[in-house]
# Entry
Amino acid sequence: MRALILSDIHANLEALEAVIKDAQGSGGFDTIWSLGDLVGYGPDPKACIDRIREFDLVSVAGNHDHAAIGLIDANDFNAAAKTAAEWTADQLDSECRDFLAAMLFVEVQGPFTLVHGSLRDPIVEYLLDRNSALGTLALLETPYCLVGHSHIPFVCFEVEGEPEFNEFPEDKRVALNDNRKIINPGGVGQPRDRDPRPSYAIYDSVESNIERHRVTYDIAKTQKKMRSADLPSRLIDRLEHGL
Ligand code: ZN
# Structure
């Protein structure tokens, strides 16, 4: 079984299509595991939800998914994100809203636990340091945890009880051996590691490994749609810088 692992699509249809095409052309996949933030920031919330639902899908909730349907207060967001959340809310039909509302905070798939932020605070906490990693490892009941939210790819190994953050290399298989791991595949729709290319991972259950890839897409096309929708310029500009 091969799972396509996506996080933070953020209503960027061009990025999502580029990732799907790349994954289909390099071994394919049987299912999609989405780590939250399907919507928010980007110009195609409904199209992204409809597209991803064409596949076998397990998806956990992100903070932007919940902001778009009023389950969390967008006033807690910065001004640009709040504007985008309000715009997104207007684009969603009742079927999209029901779908977003039905997503759970945590899902278990085989040896993986899927969550957007962290296990101790599923849609709020950014898992990027020792403290947040220890908090999640303490609650983790499967060997591996998949997280998103920061849009920063990494593989965090547990070594003698201590989390050790490592780069998640590109195009190189990472063996899922004995030690527990927390893995972030990077962001699809709004990468933030100073590389604007969408990032995704593939888990192969037979080979017991995970691999990360990046793809290019038509950033200008997405930006043009965002301009037409009058979305904040800060959100439009950041796409080409990977910030
Ligand atoms: Zn996000």
Observations:
- The longest strand covers residues 154-159.
